[in-house]
Design goal:
Layout: E1 5-9, H1 17-27, E2 31-47, H2 52-58, E3 63-71, E4 80-89, E5 92-101, H3 102-109, H4 119-131, E6 135-149, E7 156-166, E8 179-180
Antiparallel strand pairs: 1-5, 2-3, 2-6, 3-4, 4-5, 6-7, 7-8
Length: 185
Amino acid sequence: MYQAVFRRKELKYFMDDGQARGFSKVILQYMLPDEYPTSAISNLYYDTPDFRLVRNSLAKPSYKEKLRLRCYSTPGPDTESFLEIKKKVLGTTYKRRAELPYARALSYMAGHAAGWEGQIFRELDWMRQAYGPLVPAMYLSYDRCSFKGAGDPSLRLTVDRNIRWRTQQLDLSCGVWGEQLLEPG
């Protein structure tokens, strides 16, 4: 069973390799590996043809939202995937996601298939109607290590490495590859 609704306070930091090594030595004093301690995450971000969602996000407003399709492996048609709406309001992140087979998610996003019943699909339908055509705009993937608080399992910490992106072959089934987002080190 997956978690469909999240509310989190997110803080993000860059670390160089030396900082990451030192951090790794200390973190296990306070954190435990979570249920999925390592994963390779691939995302396909959707946007309008004129990139309205990303342009709004870059303007750093008090409210922003994005829509992505996420898989935890290179998918085949029946692979579990997640359509996710991620909203940030005054520094708090809200994520709502629906699980469906990868081919069905692609068909739904292309407007060729209906979603399912329920609040999350009503929100997805609203986004598709409010923004007009939403098309694959960018692929982003990374290797993630995930931890939870030793004394507070609701505390979550993730460390992402090997962040890759591309704007061609925007299909998660094409595999995990792309240009490195960050400089080595």
